[in-house]
Amino acid sequence: MKRFILFVCMAVVCLGFPIQGHSGMMEDAQKAAEKWMPSVDGGHYTESWQMTSDMFKKKISQKKWVETAEATLEPLGPVVSRGLRAIVFTHTLPDHPDGDYMVIRFNTEFQEDSDAVETVTLVKEKDNTWKIVGYFVHYGS
After folding, report:
1. Host domain of residue 134
2. What CATH number does the domain containing 114 carry?
3. How far is 124 from 99, CA to CA, in rounded Å?
4. Spatial strand order in the sheet of 17-18
5. Distance (Å, rounded) from C-alpha 134 to C-alpha 141?
6. Three-state SS across the chain?
7. Whole-number Å distance between alpha carbons of 65 and 60
8. pLDDT tens profile 91-140
9. Strands 101-110 and 79-90
10. Within-domain flag for 100
11. 2, part of any domain
């Protein structure tokens, strides 16, 4: 099975724990991810980079993000459907400072691959907003 990972500051999801009693945090993080994803879906990669956390921007330049996103996502074609798969909360991610992180996984059907899983990782910023700190997509057939 062909696997490709768009690596941008991500960690293994199993480091976290499922949300229980944190429905407000979960909803806020999910809304932030869902607000960000249309910029990626629409090929507006510069805009999507501008909407990310400072940590994300320090890990990958805007130019490199645009190049990587184009090379990875454009062959998949447009998103046909996307559904929530899981949300995991953690205080730690490899190569990141301790903090509040939400790892959200979506089952995503692209025009050219109906079996993808997108992972969006967010960090809770000092102003209590959730910002993107990582994104990757697993796909294959």
Report:
1. 24-138
2. 3.10.450.100
3. 7
4. 17-18, 79-90, 101-110, 113-124, 130-138
5. 24
6. CCCCCCCCCCCCHHHCEECCCCHHHHHHHHHHHHHHHHHHHCCCHHHHHHCECHHHHHHCCHHHHHHHHHHHHHHHCCEEEEEEEEEEEECCCCCCCCCCEEEEEEEEEECCEEEEEEEEEEEECCCCCEEEEEEEEECCC
7. 6
8. 999 889 999 999 999 999 999 999 999 999 999 999 999 999 999 999 87
9. antiparallel
10. yes
11. no
Domains identified in the chain, total number: 1
Q: Regarding predicted confidence, which is higher, 12 or 16?
A: 16
CA distance 4 to 76: 11
Q: Has residue 28 been placed in a domain?
A: yes
Please report whether residue 15 resides in a domain.
Answer: no
For residue 8, give both structure tokens: 């941008």
The token duo for 87 is 């949300």
Taking the model in full, what pTM does it have?
0.83
| Residue whose token pair is 């990757």 | 136
